[in-house]
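sry for the spam today, last one i promise. struct tokens for design, 277 residues
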């Protein structure tokens, strides 16, 4: 027991070898580690180097259906959408929801924004703040409003690596995360937030999710950074939605209640197609 789901993994659908594993390989890794749910959440469409392409979503869906036949576990189709403007726009459109079981949101470098002004004033500005290790109060306010607006505009399930590259006022973001039932991620690659900021989220009543952010199958389910953080900060595990439990996600078109998704008993076999079929 302990972590039962990994809601943040990248696959080969994050282009240019950014994600290393196929859907099957990620699912196999999750299954072998005893997880009950895994989400394939490649980078959003406006990430110019690594982003998944919309035209590849049908094939991703098919890969997920195939993997479900091999591994008796819940495999979710998601995307790690990019926050692309100071108004809180994400790089998804309403039509994308029909394909999604889970929506993650994070800030990333090299994303295409909504206008030249936003490209420089929001995306590039945050990149420079990161390089020079200084973010002005004005930029923090701009970023904070972007996150708040995004949570109000979209049904976001999880904010990924909050405060990484895009610095925000964590208390203000946490207040709206609580209000909108948006989970705060403790990310397996980088925490983003300081210990004090993680505690602020907890005191504000936010719920956490601990994910791997795996870019290769070997790292699927590797959640030690997040687990160490809650241990170190004495945050009760009841504040972590995927610790010995599974949450209800906003976008998940689940046919069974999370508690009905039981761990698999049988070992998966390598899929073989019947020749007589
Ligand atoms: Zn990310
Ligand atoms: Zn990621």
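last one done:
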């Amino acid at each position: 027991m302990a972590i039962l789901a990994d809601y943040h993994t990248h696959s080969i659908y994050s282009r240019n070898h950014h994600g290393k594993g196929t859907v099957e390989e990620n699912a196999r890794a999750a299954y072998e580690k005893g997880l009950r749910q895994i989400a394939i959440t490649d980078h959003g469409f406006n990430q110019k180097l690594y982003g998944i392409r919309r035209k590849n979503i049908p094939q991703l869906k098919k890969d997920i259906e195939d993997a479900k036949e091999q591994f008796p576990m819940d495999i979710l189709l998601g995307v790690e959408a990019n926050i692309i403007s100071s108004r809180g726009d994400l790089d998804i459109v309403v039509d994308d929801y029909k394909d999604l079981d889970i929506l993650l949101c994070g800030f990333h470098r090299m994303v295409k924004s909504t206008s030249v002004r936003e490209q420089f004033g929001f995306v590039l500005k945050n990149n420079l703040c990161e390089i020079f290790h200084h973010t002005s109060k004005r930029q923090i306010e701009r970023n904070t409003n972007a996150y708040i607006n995004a949570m109000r505009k979209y049904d976001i399930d999880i904010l990924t690596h909050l405060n990484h590259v895009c610095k925000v006022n964590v208390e203000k973001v946490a207040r709206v995360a609580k209000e909108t039932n948006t989970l705060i991620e403790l990310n397996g690659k980088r925490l983003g937030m300081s210990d004090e900021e993680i505690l602020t989220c907890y005191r504000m009543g936010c719920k956490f999710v601990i994910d791997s952010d795996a870019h290769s199958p070997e790292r699927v389910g590797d959640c030690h950074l997040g687990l160490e953080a809650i241990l170190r900060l004495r945050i009760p595990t009841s504040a972590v939605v995927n610790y010995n439990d599974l949450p209800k996600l906003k976008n998940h078109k689940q046919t069974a209640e999370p508690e009905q998704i039981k761990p698999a008993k049988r070992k998966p076999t390598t899929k073989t197609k019947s020749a007589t079929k």
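The chain has one domain: 5-260. ok im logging off now
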